[in-house]
Structures are given as structure tokens and as C-alpha cells.
Specification:
This protein is α+β, with helices and mostly antiparallel strands. It is built from 8 helices and 13 strands. The strands form 2 sheets. It has a 7-stranded antiparallel sheet with strand order 3-2-4-1-10-9-11. A 6-stranded antiparallel sheet has the order 5-6-7-8-12-13. A hairpin with a 2-residue loop joins strand 5 and strand 6. The longest helix has 19 residues, at 161-179. The mean pLDDT is 94.
């Protein structure tokens, strides 16, 4: 499977999360503690929104292991962003190539995924044929993750993100039933339009991969007054991760099974996720 993180808040350099924490995303590319695989070396990607407020995110993706990529290190120490998604890949069978690395981008949207569609090769034709023809030509890779993204776009991701992802999941499960594939969907997903960020934790068997969100900054400042970094972050700052980046007690909360969350200005949201037929 894979590991990913989604950050939203005060602008910070990418390296602050990709490299510096004890259990950083780069460390997880070699030594994941909670993933299906310990090593996630089949490519990487980072998508970030510029500090100047430009709506379209920038993107870097590579097919080599993240821990050994000099270009990623250079960019991470040079780029600051208020919102970015980062991903390290462990292939579930599709080729190791740049177009299969996350994040996937469409206009101002980004998408990362950890998980798989079981027996994707059997289901792929039916799923791809459900993608809006106007979106089809934008698909460049061969992964189940990218198909999930374009199905969500087809079902209204840009207008009603939660409903769109629920419809995508419902189509995957109904298609799998037609082909006799049990428990087809395993996913933790993050997607963003550059303003709000949505995360999803769901699996057909109700045993989803791990996902955590950071405790409110105000509470962390009270718990750890000597942590200088916390005092430079706004109250809106939030982080979602496949597995915690450190061991500060109380810093990480598990995203509940079969649920979604929304990071946004003001109060964040947490709700139940239930696939539905499109």
C-alpha cells in the first residue's frame, strides 16, 4: 500500500513534515510502522498550493524511492506552502511510472489514496467506462487510485465532495458484486480544492487502513509549552496522516472507521461515510 499526509495552515517549508520529524514521511518510505509494507519505494509525489494564492497547485512526482531523491530534498527545503499533499507509493500491481504516482491533479484539485480495488484488472473496464467522456482524456496512468479520482469528479466532486466519493465507492462495490469480487474497496483518501481538504477512511470489510488527524494547536500548546514550532502556527493549522509523525502524547487522534472529515476555515467537520449508488 502507501503512506500520505495532508497539511493545511500557516505556510511552512515542505521539509518540516517530509524530513524533520522523527517518523517523517521520508522515514516512513523506509520504515513504516503501521503500513501493510514496511518499505514504500515505488515513487513519490508532492502537490502544493503557492503562498501567493494561485489556484492551481504545483506538482512534483518521481518513480524512484523518496529517501534517495536529491531533487525532492532540494524542493522541500526551498518551497513553503499553506496547503500541500504528499505521498509515497507501494505499488499494488500497476507499473512504477510517473503517471501512476500520486497526487493526481485535475485543474485546482489534488487527490491521494492509500489502499486498493481488489481484482482491479477484472473491474477496470466497467469502472473506466463510467468516467465522464469529457474527463476521460485527462487520465494518464493505469492505477485504481486515478480511476477513483476521475469517478469522483464524474459524480460531482467539485460541487458535493462527500456525496461524490460515496457514489464512487458505491459504484466500485456494485461493480464488484456483478463480477463476484468480495470486499473490493480499501481506501484512505485526501482530496482538496486549494481551500478545503476532505479525508475519507473506508473499506468494504470495515477494517480500514490507519488514518490520524492532529489535535487542535491550542490544546497542543497547553500540553507542550516548550515546543517552539507550535507557537508559530495558526489556530487553523491541521494535519492528516497515514501514521503519526512523532510520539507526543495526545497529539494524534484516529479518524473513525467509515467516516469523512473536512478541514476548513472555522469549525472542521467529522461525519459518517456510507457508499451510495450513483
Amino acid at each position: 500500500m502507501c503512506r500520505w499526509l495532508a497539511y493545511s495552515g500557516s505556510p511552512i517549508r515542505l521539509e518540516e513534515l517530509l524530513y524533520r520529524p522523527r517518523f517523517s514521511l521520508i522515514d516512513q518510505s523506509l520504515h513504516s510502522r503501521m503500513g501493510v509494507e514496511t518499505t514504500n519505494g515505488d515513487g513519490y509525489g508532492v502537490g502544493w498550493y503557492p503562498v501567493d494564492g494561485s489556484p492551481e497547485p504545483a506538482l512534483i512526482r518521481g518513480v524512484g524511492p523518496a529517501w534517495n531523491d536529491a531533487n525532492l530534498r532540494e524542493i522541500a527545503r526551498s518551497i513553503s506552502s499553506p496547503l500541500f499533499l504528499a505521498h509515497i507509493r507501494a505499488s499494488t500491481g500497476t507499473p512504477v511510472q510517473q503517471t501512476n504516482c500520486h497526487p493526481f491533479r485535475y485543474a485546482n484539485w489534488l487527490w491521494v489514496h492509500n489502499g486498493s480495488i481488489r481484482e482491479f484488472a477484472r473491474l477496470k473496464r466497467d469502472l473506466v467506462m463510467a468516467v465522464d467522456p469529457k474527463l476521460y482524456s485527462s487520465m494518464a496512468g493505469s492505477t485504481d487510485s486515478e480511476v477513483m479520482f476521475y469517478l469522483a469528479l464524474t459524480y460531482g466532486l467539485r460541487d458535493r465532495p462527500v456525496a461524490a466519493v460515496e457514489r464512487m465507492a458505491g459504484l466500485v462495490e456494485s461493480t464488484a458484486r456483478e463480477h463476484g469480487v468480495p470486499d473490493p474497496l480499501q481506501m484512505t483518501v485526501a482530496t482538496t480544492d486549494g481551500d478545503r481538504t476532505w479525508c475519507f477512511r473506508y473499506s468494504s470489510e470495515r477494517r480500514s487502513r490507519t488514518l490520524f488527524y492532529s489535535t487542535a494547536i491550542s490544546a497542543l500548546r497547553t500540553l507542550y509549552p516548550d515546543q517552539k514550532m507550535l507557537h508559530g502556527l495558526s489556530e487553523e493549522t491541521r494535519l492528516i496522516v497515514s501514521e503519526p509523525l512523532g510520539e507526543l502524547e495526545g497529539a494524534w487522534q484516529p479518524v473513525p472507521e467509515s467516516s469523512y472529515g473536512v478541514i476548513q476555515k472555522g469549525d472542521d467537520e467529522l461525519g459518517s461515510f456510507e457508499p451510495s449508488m450513483p
